[in-house]
Write a structure and sequence with these properties.
By secondary structure, this protein is of the alpha+beta class. It has one domain (19-145). The chain has 4 helices and 6 strands, in the order αβααβαββββ. The chain has helices spanning 19-23, 41-55, 58-61, 88-97, and strands spanning 28-33, 65-70, 104-110, 113-120, 125-129, 141-145. The strands form 3 sheets. Strands 1-2 form a two-stranded parallel sheet. A two-stranded antiparallel sheet has the order 3-4. The chain starts with 18 loop residues before the first helix and ends with a strand. The relative contact order is 0.14.
């Protein structure tokens, strides 16, 4: 296998076999907005599911790959959902300190002011309201399987 990039496949990263990447200590954080109207969100879900299967199941995949689906978020941001978040810092912490991201706080602003925060959870988990406190504050949500 060549170490050179194949220009025909650079933008078609659909191979779910990430074993070589992971064997070198690679960590991958994927994210996609559920309201993306340019690339179907289920493309990312299906790709992630293929990666998980290829790696031998969720327990093995969790050590190296995470997918975060962002409710109400469009293509590359925007939308009615919590569309502002930092995925680089959690990835950096995972690579450098071994702490895998178990939630990423996202925010929504109106008029330049944050008016809502939510946790983005590693798929297939979703953010669930605890039942008390403001529904606009991420601390009042837990990541749980549906």
């Amino acid at each position: 296998m060549s170490d050179e990039l194949d220009p025909d496949n650079v933008l078609r990263a659909v191979d779910p076999n990430l074993k070589r990447f992971i064997s070198h200590g690679g960590k991958l954080v994927l994210y996609h907005g559920w309201a993306d109207n340019q690339i179907a969100p289920l493309n990312s879900v299906n790709y992630f599911s293929s990666v998980v299967s290829n790696l031998g199941g969720p327990e093995k995949a969790d050590a190296s790959v995470r997918l975060f689906m962002a409710p109400g978020v469009g293509h590359c941001g925007g939308g009615e959902g919590p569309n502002m978040f930092d995925m680089i810092s959690p990835l950096e912490e995972w690579v450098e300190q071994g702490k895998a991201p178990d939630r990423v706080i996202a925010s929504h602003t109106t008029g330049g002011q944050v008016d809502r925060t939510r946790p983005l959870c590693p798929y297939p988990q979703v953010a669930k309201y605890k039942g008390t406190g403001s529904v606009d504050d991420a601390v009042n949500f837990v990541c749980t399987k549906q």
